[in-house]
Amino acid sequence: MKTIKNILALIGLFCVASLFVFAMQDAPTDENFEKKVINDYNVYALQVPEYLDFAGEPMPLNNPDIHERMDRELLVNTYWQSNGLLMFKRAAKYFPVIEPILAKHGVPDDFKYLAVIESGLTNAVSPAGARGVWQIMKTTGREYGLEVNDNVDERYNLELATEVACEYLKKSKEKLGSWTLAAAAYNAGMAGVSRRLEEQNVSDYYDLLLGEETGRYMFRIVALKEILSHPDKYGFNFRDKDLYKEVPTYKVEVDTAVTDFTKFAERYGINYKILKIHNPWLREPHLNNKSRKQYFISLPEKGHYTKQP
Q1: CA gap 190, 211 in Å, rounded
Q2: What is the CATH number of the domain that holds 238?
Q3: d(CA 54, CA 222)
Q4: Assigned domain for 52 exists
Q5: Which residues contact 19 (CB under 8 A, 6 or more apart)?
Q6: Which helix (H) or strand (E) segment is 297 a member of?
Q7: In this structure, are residues 110 and 225 in contact, taking their beta carbons and an 8 Å threshold?
Q8: Whether residue 234 sits in one domain with residue 167
Q9: What family does the entry list (predicted)?
Q10: Does 276 lie in the same domain as 226?
Q11: Domain count, the chain
């Protein structure tokens, strides 16, 4: 009797599984996704491209050590699929803000991928105290003209932070001689990179023996550049409508104190949360502004949030 029950249970399980597979196969699909087979998932070894570069400076991929380290980062970032898709989605939203600022400063476009590995294009906070998409330290931010305090922290202002990153990178390039070393210095500091170059008597990043983080740094940047530039090649499937879009905004000038940002937001047909989403650099629910400094607060155009008329 027990055997018969077990057989009947297995038959029932098989029927349920068959119905599930049938339902999945017959489920409604969308556009070119309808030809994708749900269970066709495989893991493949990746072919490292014959040529890769950062800011026009080639990687020496004929060096077996460099080849293996590049292979590692391509594998790690290709098969971390959820994170990869998020990078595609966020890049569509934030690259259009970053790219023209890089171009204005004459900083190679490839540096937008540095922001990707620094923060995942989020307003991250590091254990060392770096903040924002560009992970700027407090002292560096102030040195390059950002306001950083409990009330206002412009490291969270993407436009201003990108300007600072550009100035730092240009200074690093002038001091160290290449964009690759300038990028490495963004992680390890100009003095740290200079010291290691001198100690090891080399002049190229790829000849340096470095710690884990800085040693992987350029390989991670180039891997993200390669993957984000060729989604189909690395198995990422999405439609334009799957990507995040920046909500159009306009700027309101403020040169006085603001005692209550909740009331301020309501005057423009939004709530405090929406105001903070577009102005994460406002760190408190009020603005002190004793110096009567000129600030520009971003507000969403009407029709993008349900609270708006």
Answers
A1: 15
A2: 1.10.530.10
A3: 6
A4: no
A5: none
A6: strand 295-300
A7: yes
A8: yes
A9: Belongs to the transglycosylase Slt family.
A10: no
A11: 2
Residue type, 286: H
Phi, psi dihedrals of residue 81, rounded to the nearest 5°? -65, -40
Q: Which residue has the tokens 């171009």?
A: 103
Burial tier of 107 (Cβ tally within 10 Å: 0-12, 13-18, 19+): buried
Could you give the CA distance from residue 69 to residue 77 in angstroms, rounded to a whole number? 13
- The backbone region for 171, taken as left when phi is positive above 0, alpha when psi lies in -120 to 50, beta otherwise, is alpha
Q: 194 and 83: one domain?
A: yes
Does 208 map to a domain? Answer: yes
Check residue 35 and give its pLDDT: 54
Question: Along the chain (309 residues), what's the average pLDDT of each consecutive run of 10 residues?
Answer: 43 41 43 52 89 98 97 96 96 98 98 98 96 97 97 98 98 97 97 97 97 96 98 94 95 97 96 97 97 96 69
258 Cβ neighbours under 8 A, 6+ residues apart: 264, 286, 287, 289
Helices (runs of H) and strands (runs of E) counted in the chain: 11, 4
Q: Which residues contact 133 (CB under 8 A, 6 or more apart)?
A: 94, 115, 118, 119, 121, 122, 123, 124, 158, 161, 162
The type of residue at 289 is N
CB 133 within 8 A of CB 241: no
In a domain, 36, yes or no: no
The parent domain of residue 275 ranges over 249-300
User: Residues, the chain, total?
Assistant: 309
pLDDT at 305: 81
For residue 297, the cross-strand partners are: 252
Displacement of CA 165 from its chain's centroid (Å) = 15
Amino acid letter at 280? P
Distance CA 61, CA 250 (A): 46
Task: Provide the pLDDT for residue 2.
Answer: 39
Q: pTM of this prediction?
A: 0.85
Q: Which of 193, 208, 242 is the last residue of a domain?
A: 242
Per the CB < 8 A criterion, the answer to whether 278 and 299 are in contact is yes
